[in-house]
Amino acid sequence: MATPLTAVLKLLLAAVAASLLSFSAGAADQPVAQVPFSIGYGGWFTVSVAVNGRGPYDFIIDTGATQSLVFENLARTHDFPLSGGSPRTVLGLAAAGSFPPYRVGEISIAEGVRLRDHECVVLDDWTVERASPQGVIGLDLLRRFTLVFDAGTKELSFYAAGADVGIPKNWREIKLEPRDFGVASGELYTLNAYLGRAAIPFLLDLGASGTIINYPAVRKYSNQYRTIEYGLYPTRARQRIIDALGKTDTVQAYKVRRIKAGDAVWRNAVVYAHPAYIFDDLGVVNQPFGLFGSDMLAGRSFLIDFSGRRMLVGPAPR
User: Fold this and answer.
1) Which of 295, 293, 243, 298 shows the shortest CA–CA distance to 38?
2) pTM of the model
3) How many CB atoms lie within 10 A of CB 99?
4) CB atoms near residue 227 (< 10 Å)
5) Which among 212, 202, 193, 288 is positioned nearest to 251, based on CA atoms?
6) At 137, which helix (H) or strand (E)?
7) Which is it for the CA torsion 217, 221, 224, 227, positive or negative?
8) How far is CA 188 from CA 63, 101, 103, in A?
9) Number of CB atoms found within 10 A of residue 125's CB
10) Alpha-carbon dihedral sign for residues 210, 211, 214, 217
11) Nearest CA to 242 among 206, 283, 212, 285?
12) Which run of H or E residues covers position 39?
């Protein structure tokens, strides 16, 4: 006969198992594909990609990029030809620029998740600690699907846009708003987040390894933040932000006691203030604005439903 303590443990284990099963078995629709993902190169979500049947190569999942593209280290090994098309504008942390497109061919993550006859620009390598990924998967491919990142299994599931995806009830919803900033082809997605009591619009940008705010946000809401002494905080993360932003200005780090986006909450989060070129390019240099980076979602399971204009975020890891 089971003791009361044993019975309680069995009930707890059953509850945990039920919550885990609700993520997969509860889904009415099956994913188009499931692939492993990793968090590397200083914090980017990356997946393995084949280019014209060769690979695997590490590509960054970047919701702040309207177009998928490749880096110079990959172009050197493939010798992609120029397409002869019109130059394309690329938006980035350091600066926007206009670049000639190349005929890259097929970029494939999995069966049913690929770009065919793809033309794109070639950018200089994004090197982090002497290593560089080979490319970026942008919204031209990502927005065709509903994405589910499972932090437990480290799997990224691609569902058809608008699919019925079963998820745990304790995931919290954040509304996304598509917005055309007029500087790159296609829309990007923004969300509103409260830093303390201060409401700030953010670009959902998994291509930013840190969450960044501009100086108008600092000036207007500085009483909501606490400055972090660099000696008490890892300097490696700060240096990666400095390297990526391409300006010599000092990056100021702040600790925010509470960040709330939709129904999701982050506590004691770190944000970085910097006058990045991207704020000029987006036309938000004179108003509070930020980049909601991959660091906010690392360790959490989450869903991005582009067609439904929403993101669902699981609880923080314990």
Assistant:
1) 298
2) 0.86
3) 14
4) 11
5) 212
6) strand 135-137
7) positive
8) 8, 21, 24
9) 15
10) negative
11) 212
12) strand 33-40
Inter-residue contact 74 to 48 (CB < 8 Å): no
Q: Which two tokens stand for residue 95?
A: 């600066």
Q: How far apart are CA 156 and CA 113, in angstroms?
A: 12
Range in 40-44, 79-83, 177-181, 196-200 with the lowest mean pLDDT: 196-200
| Cα-to-chain-centroid distance, residue 215 | 22
Q: Which amino acid is it at 297?
A: L
Residue 34 three-state SS: strand
Query: How far is the first Cα of the chain from the last one, in angstroms, to the nearest whole number?
Result: 33
For β-strands 212-213 and 264-273, DSSP reports them as parallel
Exposure class string for 50-59: b at 16+ Cβ within 10 A, else e: ebeeeeebbb
The tokens for 298 are: 């690392």
Residue whose tokens read 């609880």? 315
Alpha-carbon distance values, 204 to 97, 103, 231, 245, 315 (Å): 20, 28, 30, 17, 19
Segment 211-217 shows an average pLDDT of: 90
Q: Under a CB-based contact definition with an 8 Å cutoff, are residues 7 and 14 in contact?
A: no
Q: Half-sphere exposure of 58 toward its Cβ, with a 13 Å CA cutoff?
A: 15
Q: What are phi and psi of 293, to 5 degrees?
A: -90, 180
- DSSP symbols for 124-159: ----BTTB--SEEE-HHHHTTEEEEEETTTTEEEEE
pLDDT in tens, 241-279: 555 555 545 678 888 888 999 999 999 888 888 888 889
